[in-house]
Structure formats: C-alpha cells, structure tokens
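Show me any protein, fold above all:
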Amino acid sequence: MNLAAANQTAATRLRLRITAAAETIVRSGHPWLFAGSILESNRAGQPGELAVIYDRKDEFLAVGLFDPDSTIRVRILHAGKPQTIDRVWWLARLEKPLALRRDLFDAQTTGYRLIHGESDGWPGLVLDKYDSTLVLKIYTAAWLPRFDEIVVLFKEKIPCERIVLRLSRNIQSIAEKQFQRRDGQIIFGTAPEGPVVFSENGVHFEADVLRGQKTGFFLDQRENRREVETLACGRRVLNVFSFSGGFSVYAARGGAKSVTDLDISAHALESAKRNVALNKNFSGMADCRHETVQADAFEWLARSTGKFDLVVLDPPSLARRAAERDGAIHAYERLNLLGIQKLARDGILVAGSCSAHVSAADFFESVRRAAMKSGRSFLELKILQHPPDHPATFKEAAYLKVIYLKFLT
C-alpha cells in the first residue's frame, strides 16, 4: 500500500461519520478515534489505509490510519483543512521531530528518542536511537502495510548502521502471519553481536535492542538519573526495580558510598553488573561498593533491616488498564511507605511512576500520604516529568512522573 492517498477516488476512499462528541474531541486535537464513536462507514476498512472522517455537514474533519482490530479504530494524522498525504507530506512530518531534537544533545549522549508516537505526529510508532542503531517500535497493525515505505524514509533522513523492529505483543501474530514481520527482526543492516552500547551524559550503557524491554533501555529516565547523580555523594543508595542499573551507575559516578540493585530478574541484574563494568573509568566507580539482590521488591523491603541514604523506587507500570487505577494508587502508597522505612535520617526518596492510568496528581498525593503515615518530617525537593525527547501533547500520553522527598528525621 502506498503512503499517498492521491490515487484513491472519492468513491473508493474509506469514509467515516462519527458522533457529535467525537467530532468535538477530534477538533480539539486528540489523536485517537475509538470504535464506539463511529456511526457509519461506506465500506469495511483494511489495516493501514487512510480513513477520511467527515463532520455532520459532510465537510472534511480529519484523516488517519485505520485499524479494524483495535479499539482505537483510527489514529489521527491530520485534522483541519484537507491535505494530500503523499511522500512530500511524510517527509515533512518526519523532519519536524528530527529538527526538534537536533540541539538537545551533544556528543556525550548518543541514545535518545527520535519519534515519540502521537505527540510527534506518528501515532502508534516510536523510533529510538542507540548510537548507530535505530529501534523502531510499532504499537498498531496500521503501520504494517506501510512498513517498507516508512523504513525508506528513515534510512534516507537518519544515518544509521542498522534498524531493528520491535512489535507490541498485541500485533505480533498478525505481523508474522500476514506481513512476515517479527519482533526483534533486523530490517536494515546486520545483526549486532550482542547488546548495543551507547552513551548518556558520558555514561556508557548497553541496550538489548533485540529482546529487551521496550526498545532495550528506559531512555525517558535520563534526567532523573542525572538528578540522582547530583544527590548521591557519600550516600548508601538502594535502587529498587533496578532493571539494568541505570540509576546505580549514575549514583556511583556521583560519589555514592555504595549502591544496591534490587530486581526480581536475574537477567536484568547481570546487565546491571555489565553496565557498572562499562564505566570503571570514572573515579567514583572504584570507591563505590556495588551489590545486587534478586528478590520481589515488596517482600524484600518489608523484611530487610538495613538502612539507606537514598532510595529510588521506579517500578514498572502498576496500572496497565483504567480498571486497575485504584489498586495501583494503593500499591504506590504501600511501596513508598516501605521505601521510606528504609531511609536513614536525612535520607532522600526518589519515587516514580510510569502508569498512564494514574495521573500525576493522584500519584504525588499517594506518595505524600505515605510520607505522612511514616510519621517523619519531610521536605519536597523536586518534581520531574517528561524529558524533551518524550513530549506529552495529550492527556493519555502523560505517563511519567517523579517526586523527590527528603526526610529530616
């Protein structure tokens, strides 16, 4: 299927009419049209074709990528006046996020996000850069028929050694059966011999781009890792849900006395050890004791007796759907109370959430409730949310939030 829609006649083009409420939402700039909002269509739509949405006056409202198997039936590409969606249009759409990132990073940072889905005008698609490797993550089958053509655009505009395809679990079956695409497939260049190594503020990390979580690393926590480095000097640091030890490496470089990585995954902890070894050139690393603990975080925090001067709590999403929101808020409160109990006097808690279904206000309030239940006096030091290469332009995109508290007693 061609990226352009110019060859479609008005008679064959997929035409949709939607509810009045949905019209208002689309006009406001929201990038999703749900299946229940569609009142009628002129025919059945195919994955990835352009769906043209008309308002009640039969005037053009928007155009987007159609996905018949998703509750998000259309991912909006453009709303307003009609435009021709052709190669020139797509090149301009690609240039915009690339231009926004050209002055964000220097040579000390070679790992960052190039395209952040809907917020960059590429709904359901993420493109991350790890040095000379690009990782393309697709969350909707609507991109699969257009795959070869978007890859050509990326190769043309972004110099790279290879491009790796990562697929959301919900589309892996259709990707393999209908389009011969699989998660971890090398779609350009040669396969890496192991994890890809990249730099972040001069720190070196490995990214498992073929099989790792997300695209291989959590690039969105870059600013918080740097903040932890500034707070770590002389402190005993506990990194809970440590994954591959990103916070710990920064803390060690910042002069931490010791760092402890706690994670249930042995694979993640081995990666953390390798990341520490990658950064032995920093003076603080040699003087910092590094320990790994494989355990369930909630259980270990409840039973262990040691104290720490800085505790990082960065769990995976505790609410993957809206129905889990209330339970997640209670879990965050419990988790942070356990973390606070591990803090020595003048200790610092770094509490994060990546659950889009839990708002920043609800999350921060749950952390504050935990702090008050601890009976200790505390100060709020800072709040951080999305870094500039992970913009959030609509409500559902705002997932990341981190709060810093210092406990004085």
